[in-house]
Amino acid sequence: MDRVLTRRQLCPRLLGIGVAVLLFILALSAASAPAAVVSGRVFNDFNTNGVFDTNPNTGAVDVGVGGLTVRAFTGAHTLVGTATTHADGTYSLDLPNTRVRLELEVARPWWPSRQDNGLRSDVQFVNASSPVTGVDFGVHQIDQYSLDNPYVFWPLQWAGPVEASSANANEDAIRGLPYFRSETAPITAAWDTEPASEKKHPATFEDIGTTFGLGIDQLNGDLYAGAYYKRFAGLKDRRTGAIYQITQSGHVTLFRNLPAGTDRHPTSTNVEDWIHCAETSPTNPAPNPATCDLSWDSVGKLGLGSVVVDPGNHNVYTVNLANHALYRLPLGAQGEHATPIADPRCAGGDWRPFAAGFNRTDGKLYVGGVCDAETSQSPANLEAVVYRVDNPTSAPAFTPVLRFHLNYTRAPTTNPLQFCEAPGYCEWRPWPTLTSTGGLPPSNADRGPEAVEGSNDSYPQLTAITFAADGRMILGFRDLIGDMAGACVPGELSEGNACTANTGFGPMSHGDMLAAAPNAGGTFTLESNGEVAGTPSAGQAPGANNWLYGPIGPDPGYYYNPSPISGPGGSTCPSTLGAGGCASGAPHPYQGGVTQVPGFADVVATSIHVFNPQANGLLWKRNSTGANVRSLENYITPTPPPFTGFAKSNGLGDLDSYMGLAPVQVGNRLWFDRNHNGIQDAGERPVTDTVVELVDCKGNVVGETRTDSHGEYVFDIESGTCYRVRVPLDQPSLHGWEPTRRFAGTDRRIDSNCRDVGGRGVMFVGSHGPGQNDFTFDCGVRRIPPPPTPPPPKPEPPAPQPPPGPEPPTPGVVPPSGPLVLVKHVLRQTASTVEYSIIVRNGGPNDVTDVRVCDRLPAGLVFVSATRSGRRVNGRQVCWSFASLASGEEHVLHLTTRVRAGTLTGTTVNCVDARGIGTPTVPNTPGKPVGPVRACATVHAPVRPPPPPAVTG
Fold it and tell me: Distance (Å, rounded) from C-alpha 653 to C-alpha 646?
């Protein structure tokens, strides 16, 4: 009958079973515990120099890239770890005790960065037997590349007709300077004092007339400038829709001439006639339309707005102010493609599109403009609107992403008479009409008490769109009063302001620069209370004392400092900027041009009142704080006559940078493919110090290098050109080896590409575009199999021999009975220590798994230390374990022992054994045991010198 256990009998048994299960689980946990943590960072290497750059004064500031995947493999394809990079680009992997292959998944629009300054490719090999840090990967986006110090270009606007005889004919219509000056350059610099060798003058006023929009083809540096309608500033050949192509060497051609309205500037060729708008006689106070430029009501309604070149350098885009259409103009081809820009249904006025800009992070095109409130004359109807343009090259569609009112507070409460001349004079106002101005120019005093100063009338236009590295949209607004009025025009507000009594009014324009943070759905949120996406500016207390001006700006508070960096002329600005600059002169100095070089810390804007009150120039503002960091004084308008620049009545156009094209590298690795599988197994050794050649498609050797300690090589190549990479196979490092199988598997980054062509391993390198770094040109080599040999003749049977007697173990190598080869010898011996070297190698054609190497120390030796890789110590026995040994793979182990005092005499033999499991010959069956094999080393006791003789008295 069955035996029934009592509770007293059952409980101890259950307890014993539980303890056994717990011990088993703990053993499994210990066996599977990681040997080391491998960590690093994936970063956006904007300039692809291989360095994580952090200095904002020398180029782009690199940032970590989150959301990318790093995977770790052993052998050919055994996945042992996966990590996703954090927002700062860091990652870490807990990996087993062996060599692993790390692979970064680089999905478009990302590309691997160049292998410069120690940075390696998107596939790296790491020994995870101990913690490894700094295993970094660099990636970049082709359209975000820039030279460390690109040239910045901007248009200038001059008074009068575009004639060879004009006083301003030879003035620069476009200028260029390096983005950075020397580290010792003053914070506020001037064009006139910059080195002549660094200045660029691509076009004159006679060459192209008045322009605003400016785009640059990064392929060759060609500039494209669009005609802009500004009162008192003439157009080349009276073309309102002209776009001019200007090379870096200064060659100017007409690129396109679009239908953008009829030029209404005077026909006189004398600038004095254009500017002299006083009464024609004491009894007739009206200006003479035959000579005076009265076309202020065409500003913003004729000509062209933004001009931009797409990131791929295939098309020029511009906004036609006359017909509200977005034009696509192919580069290198004829034709034009016009699409009406969507109408946001403005209340109380018309839609006035103007701005266009690309986000170089995702390649999206955006257009924007304002609702002018011209009909209602109500500031509540003033709005700014931005659309994303989907499918711009085929069927453009306009998706609204940002819309906001422009009736936020702009009039400062701190010293308003200094900053905006009279209370409330800085506010945005509806666009003027002939009716609202009584038929006179907006700046004319005869309009009545509301026009005591032209600064009263600020008419908004959104003129530029750019994007910072964090995805924020930066908007440039231009005050059209500066284009509707001139500088010191006789007959218009003869009240002084840097003008003499007989030269009239010099208005002050008040533009703006605002930021909007991206949202998850593709829309944007306008800055508020001095913050962008929750990040506050450095403007002291946002909303309360914003940048020393009081509560001005959206909600209210500006993120970017609304003051120029100023100097003489009543300024309170110190000689150094201090904490982000100072409040000096009128706020809102912007002229509507902005540009952002990808990855750079600052946004650059055009401005009035730069250093000198009558100067225009450029401002650099830090995106992380909104603070002013430096400026460039471009041009100081002298008191007329003669009439030249426009002082505070605008005078500059948009901005763009010649960033260049990303360089290209190809490469990657030579390795010993011992198992002939054509895959770079994690444990297979690199081929180091080996010559690799780069050959152009005409057969000329154009580059030569050697593989480094990782077996890797790289070449810098020209984009759009084909090459071949060659590895001479007659080198000492490759003696006895030949190219392995090609294109094994589906991942070109870890296979072999080369084939034997006339004693060289050759790989074809097709044409690559700028920045398309390609590290898939790997070459694996395998052992050349020996030629077959005929079987030896059958030997004669040997004569019978007496059986040998037992012998002690033989030091050194014991011939293996299988694929495992074991070698042991004494590395170093002193009176108190003995160090051994042990080599275990797989000499067979297939993998050996579960390899275990054990050394049992004799009684006279005591364990001190050993190679940590896979080591386990149990009493006098020291063992190492390896998950597998690939064909040809070997490990070198070291063991240090201490001689027990008085116990080591004569000869001591110390042996080590190795065993494992062979690769199954039949799938899904267990492999056969391999070994054991043994190797021994002999230690001889040191001969002690005899004691000295005793001394007797």
Answer: 12
On whether both 567 and 714 belong to a single domain, the answer is: no
How far apart CA 533 and CA 215 sit, in angstroms, is 29
What is the per-residue pLDDT across 617-626, written as a single tens digit (0 to 9) for each?
Answer: 999 999 999 9
Q: Assign 881 to helix, strand or coil.
A: strand
Alpha helices (H) in 448-549, listed in sequence order = 481-484
Q: Are residues 231 and 376 in the same domain?
A: yes
Q: Please calculate the CA angle 645-650-652 and round it to the nearest 5 degrees.
A: 75
* Amino acid of residue 526: L
Please count the other Cβ atoms lying within 10 Å of the Cβ belonging to residue 542: 24
Yes or no: say if 71 and 85 are a contact pair by the CB < 8 Å rule.
no
Q: Are 635 and 651 in contact (CB under 8 A)?
A: yes
Regarding whether 601 and 688 lie in a shared domain, the answer is no
Residue 81 lies in a domain: no
pLDDT tens digits, residue range 724-757?
Answer: 999 999 999 999 999 999 999 899 999 999 999 9
Residues 413 and 461 placed together within one structural domain of the fold: yes
Does residue 103 form part of some domain? no
Q: Which of 479-488, 871-880, 939-948 bottoms out in mean pLDDT, i.e. has the lowest?
A: 939-948
- Say yes or no: 266 and 379 in one domain: yes
- Domain of residue 29, residue span: 1-33
User: In the beta sheet, which residues pair with residue 388?
Assistant: 366, 399
Q: Is the peptide bond before 340 cis (omega within 30 degrees of 0)?
A: no
Give the residue ranges of DSSP H helices in 557-688: none
Largest interatomic CA distance in the chain:
147
Domain co-membership, 600 together with 502? yes
Looking at the structure, do residues 777 and 833 belong to the same domain, yes or no? Answer: no
Assess whether 298 and 432 both reside in one domain: yes
Please spell the DSSP secondary structure of 366-435, one letter per residue.
EEEEEE--TTT--GGG-EEEEEEEESTTSS-EEEEEEEEES-S--S-SSSHHHHHSSTTTTSB-PPP-TT
**Cα 303 from Cα 212, distance rounded (Å):** 10
Q: Which residues 6+ apart lie within 8 Å of 951 measured at CB?
A: none
Q: Which amino acid is residue 601, in one-letter code?
A: A
Q: Give the total number of structural domains in the chain.
A: 4
Which single residue is written with the structure tokens 């890789």? 869
- Domain assignment present for residue 723? The answer is yes
